[in-house]
Amino acid sequence: MELNTGVIAIIMTIIVLEIQPPTNLVHYADFLHDIGIFFITFLIVGKFWYDLHNSYAYHIYRPGKSIAIVDLLLLGTLSLMPVMAKWVMLTPSSISIANYGVVFLVANLLLAILQILGFRDTFEIDSKTTIRITILRTGVAIVFNLILIALFFVSPYLSMILYLGFPIVSFIVSMGPKPGPRPENDKNK
After folding, report:
1. Is residue 70 within 8 Å of residue 117, measured between CB atoms?
2. Which site in 73, 86, 146, 181 is 20 to 30 Å from 157, CA atoms measured?
3. Is the separation of the CB atoms in 38 and 15 below 8 Å?
């Protein structure tokens, strides 16, 4: 979990470093645009940190090799967010924003795989229900992402505004399982 927090903190720092201050008043609108992209990306990456934190705190007690591999792939994918944010800042086009959305979609898929593997390894009694909830949540995220990626080609700026709303709504409305107590034998570890 410490690696996740460290890598995500670095990702968030790199994103803010991509913002170029305006050299004159003419560039101020671009500066505000870049700050908007920063906050969208910051919230998205922050949501992934929050989901990973909850997964490891409440559902993944003894991560195995498969969880570690998926976790590293997720961190690698999230590490592309500063590149995608910079691309959108420098060239706000349908293709740059669509690629931003694809990275976000892949990260969501990897997070879902991580959660399913963790739930499978941790819960013996209610694993089917937990996996169904995770698959449902992932399905909603995939459909939402595909709609936004398609919308990028029609209205890129509207898509970016909707991406801002996605992490905020996800924080407020959670479809995942409620955290439960850790197993008794893990409390002393």
Report:
1. yes
2. 73
3. yes
Distances 2 to 8, 51, 56, 125 between C-alpha atoms, Å: 10, 14, 11, 29
**C-alpha distances out from residue 129 to 64, 81, 109, 180, Å:** 22, 32, 19, 14
Upper half-sphere CA count for residue 59 (Cβ side, 13 Å) = 24
For the entire predicted model, the pTM comes to 0.73
C-alpha–C-alpha distance, residues 159 and 178, integer Å: 30
Q: Is the pLDDT of residue 142 over 70?
A: yes
pLDDT for 121 equals 58
Q: Cβ(166)–Cβ(144) under 8 Å?
A: yes
What lies within 8 Å, CB to CB, of 45 at 6+ separation is: 8, 11, 12, 15, 78, 81
